[in-house]
Amino acid sequence: MKHEIVINLPIAADEVPNLRELVGWDGRYSDYPTLFERCNFWAGLRDEENKLIAFGYVSGMGLQHGYMEDIIVHPEFQQKGIGESLVRKLLQEAERVGLEIVTLTYDSKHTSFYKKSGFTPCSGGLWRRKD
């Protein structure tokens, strides 16, 4: 399968939540399609049957800094280089639109993946609302 990652790929409102659930995440159905209206850009990949198999996006003010989130690859298509291609495409688009810094947070088990994809690990912080 050739990795034809497409920036701002047309995506139906339920496709990303369905993909999120396939990888064991909360679907966040209420976030879509609002996310597409608010983020800077997104990227996706479809398989031969036109099913969404990869997704990620960059959000922020669109000035100097962006934040990458939701790098998702369908479980059946993982370990094939799709995730790395997705991240690289998003970083190419970030560079094209003039972003100088892109950050993201990830579980430490994914450090080597993100290093391979061009990120430099660094310290940071996380605030989370208390439920």
Which range best describes the helical content: under 10%, 10-25%, 25-40%, 40-55%, 55-70% or over 70%? 25-40%
Q: Could you name the CATH topology? A: Aminopeptidase
CATH class: Alpha Beta
In CATH, the architecture is: 3-Layer(aba) Sandwich
Strand % is 15-25%
Categorize the overall geometry: globular
Q: Total domains, how many?
A: 1
Give the strand order of the largest sheet, numbering strands 1, 2, ... along the chain: 1-2-3-4-5
Query: What is the CATH superfamily classification?
Result: Gcn5-related N-acetyltransferase (GNAT)
Number of strands: 5
Q: Can you tell me the residue ranges where pLDDT is under 50 for at least 5 consecutive residues?
A: none
Structural class: alpha+beta
- Gyration radius over CA: 14 Å
Number of helices: 4
Biggest β-sheet, characterized?
5 strands, mixed
Distance between the termini: 43 Å
- From N to C, what is the helix and strand string? EHHEEEHEH
Mean pLDDT: 91
GO molecular function: N-acetyltransferase activity
Domain N-acetyltransferase: 7-131
InterPro entries: Acyl_CoA_acyltransferase, GNAT_dom, NSI-like
Protein name: GNAT family acetyltransferase
What would the keywords be for this entry?
4 helices, alpha+beta, 5 strands, acyltransferase, 131 residues, Aminopeptidase, globular
Structure description:
GO terms for molecular function: N-acetyltransferase activity. It holds the Pfam family Acetyltransf_1. The chain is built from four helices and five strands, in the order βααβββαβα. It has 131 residues and is α+β, with helices and mostly antiparallel strands. It has one domain (6-116): Aminopeptidase (3-Layer(aba) Sandwich), CATH 3.40.630. A five-stranded mixed sheet has the order 1-2-3-4-5. The longest helix has 15 residues, at 82-96.
